[in-house]
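Fold this sequence, please.
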Amino acid sequence: MSLLNGKQPITVGHANIPFSFFQHQILMKCDRFVCRGSLVTTCVGVLGLTLFMGAAFPVLAQPRPLPNSEVQYRVLTVTGQGVENVQTTQAEVRLGVDVQGKTAEVVQQEAARRSAAVVSLLKSRNVGRLETSGITLNPEYNYNNGKQELIGYRGSNIVSFRIDTGKAGSLLDDAVKAGASRIDSVSFVAAEEAISAAQKQALVKATKDAQDQAKVVLAALNLSPQDVVSIQIGANTPPPPPIPVQAKVLSAEADATTPVVGGEQAVQASVTLQIRY
């Protein structure tokens, strides 16, 4: 843009506009506000010229205020732990048959026969979650002077099931009489309803633990907690470790019933809080 004195044309962009055009615009603005005095008239006239020519000048962008979603705030992240113990009422058992013989066919048939008898017994006792957990048939070798000699085969058939803890001892004895020759493990679990109730109590304890941690840390820094901005929940109920049982203890000739005593199962939960301060 170039401005010249007198009546020379004014260049705006690529167009030449006569100076008389701007003069006319200024006069029009002055005529409208003449009643307010000469000082006001002059200012309005200049303003009219400025507004008309403003398109040729760059306008500086004003800083944009941050929206509420971008406002930064301070948060403290804490994780609380909660544990609730519940009494176990069921025994989870793994047992089966283990057979040795000269040929694979003989071993497999004998394992199948004895396994069928054990499974029939378990079904008659209305055990829960009865399922086959493993079947094996492997050759056995004897090594002498670096030579491998086949001496026979070993086969096994393992099942797992659940039964009330109070009935587990007598059932184990009867299973051995029916043909079971191995009892791999016995573990104890609580009923599903009891575990669900314990999980809720564990979450309450975990939440309180997280809140107590936050109060201690902020108080030490002379700060005050505000509101909770994020919550994450985690629950974990690890099964109790299995207890190995020796099959020889449960011999068919034993007169006494095998004692099986359950314990408590720990139900765990964690809660992570983000607290604004």
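Residues 9 and 19 are 5 Å apart (CA to CA). The chain is about 35% helix and 35% strand.
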